[in-house]
Amino acid sequence: MKSTIARTLVPAALAAAALDAPAPAAVAAAAPGPIEGSFTLSCPGFKVVLTADGKVGVIALPGDREKIIWPGLSVTVSDKSGESVTYNGAAGVTHIQYLEDGSQFVTATGPNLITVPRANGHPVGVYFTTGTVSWTLDSKGREVGGMFSGSGTVTDICAELAD
The pTM is what? Predict the structure, then answer.
């Protein structure tokens, strides 16, 4: 089973190779490995650069599930004017349940940076979440339903940098 998460934790773009590997049926844990680098993302009307430093690990669980952990992660989001926001300890956990129809139910717990593509009437964006937020992706990685559900809080980083 492959993970093709269109909307995910931001540093996952740096760990795509780890996420594209087939998940074994038994419980398996990859030792968290280093993740660092910078890449560009879109906000409504402007671009931002994300710089990530920390570790990432993928744990395959029984029942077509995975857990992605981000120990010691620090992420800085900067716009072209040099204004930036840094999140030290943005090291929440992402839980992925693969469903029989090929879709994925994703839950992020703790502090996380999440990218959201333009979909379902909302613009592209970068968000910092705390607590528990969830979303569903169809078999092609497209968002189904609302952008976030759950009891967590969501901060629009693009809006913060646009001010």
Answer: 0.77
